[in-house]
Design a protein that fits this description.
By secondary structure, the chain is of the alpha+beta class. The chain is built from five helices and nine strands. The chain binds flavin mononucleotide. Flavin mononucleotide binds next to strand 2, strand 4 and helix 2.
Amino acid sequence: MTEPQDAIPDTDPFALFAEWFALAEAAELNDPNAMALATATPDGCPSVRMVLLKGQDADGFVFYTNAESRKGQEIADNPHAALLFHWKSLRRQIRVEGVLEEVTREEADAYFASRGRASQLGSAASDQSRPLEDRQVYLDRVAALEHALGDAPVPRPPHWTGFRLAPARMEFWQDRTARLHERRQFTRLADGSWTSTLLYP
Ligand SMILES: Cc1cc2nc3c(=O)[nH]c(=O)nc-3n(C[C@H](O)[C@H](O)[C@H](O)COP(=O)(O)O)c2cc1C
């Protein structure tokens, strides 16, 4: 079968993301919304970890976490970040780069309230990224919080929040025959519109 000469269209990158994400949701075994989040200290030392995409629209890509974690501290000191999706079964990758902004309190409250109670308790009891002398200490903290709350709702800790990455650049990569892969990079212009170019693979 002959491949199309130019398979990644020069179109709205958010619409293209939505199209590829829908394919990933149908194809991936689990966590199609998993993405690597790269942050860096102000002097440029990078760190990367996986997080889950919990919202995406023309304003950007949203994930939730603990703002007192290592990533949270790096974001507070340097809001520039990058995301990477790699869908192995589709042999596709999307890179996103831009600046992070904390979501509103209402958004964080709404998302926290939508989580299962066990997840709420687990995140509320976690000093994410801080040393833990024994795993049992964490399990005891979860149990103590559960006991203290009884049937009351789990309050969202103020440091448990979300961040939205507003993309300045997005790149779509697709595996092609004989490793003649295809890349299209979209760059946001000052007026908010996008320009795109193919890149050598
Ligand atoms: C597939 C996957 C999804 C994850 N999703 C999240 C998430 O949405 N939020 C989060 O805080 N941590 C998530 N984690 C855990 C992070 O990778 C990481 O261990 C944690 O956030 C602490 O990172 P930090 O010390 O760099 O702040 C996920 C891990 C995996 C493997």
